[in-house]
Amino acid sequence: QVQLVESGGGSVQPGASLRLSCAASGFTFATYTMKWYRQAPEKERELVALINSDGSTNYADFVKGRFTISRDNSKTTAYLQMNSLKPEDTAVYYCNARRTVISRAYWGQGTQVTVSS
Questions:
Q1: CA–CA separation, 94 and 42 (whole Å)
Q2: pLDDT, tens digit (0-9, with 9 covering 90-100), for 57-102
Q3: Coil, strand, or helix at residue 73?
Q4: Other CB atoms closer than 10 Å to residue 8's CB: what's the count?
Q5: Please, which residues have CB within 8 angstroms of residue 103's CB and are 6 or more apart in sequence?
Q6: CA distance 27 to 11
Q7: From CA 18, how far away is CA 67, in angstroms rounded?
Q8: Strands annotated E in 8-110
């Protein structure tokens, strides 16, 4: 069955870096668009970044220049490199996989990122 397992979250100080990983299995990873979302307490889930099967990427304005999404199809893993972290980046980060805009989306269980001094 489809599995998305996030890892790499943690508690860091402002300005620090973290790299999140999303290990995928159970589907043809290379053909899927991979996305990272986040949800802060009492806020709606929001899209952070996406990477298409052709490697093209897109970012939310609030992370442009700080976060980088990537994928390694040989390892069926997506990554989110997060630099210059801010307290407002504190949230649970979720991995999402979807082949097309009309196909079913799959979600991971999330990983907590806390940025605090």
A1: 16
A2: 999 999 999 999 999 999 999 999 999 999 999 999 999 999 988 8
A3: coil
A4: 16
A5: none
A6: 31
A7: 10
A8: 10-12, 18-25, 33-39, 46-51, 57-59, 67-72, 77-82, 91-98, 105-107
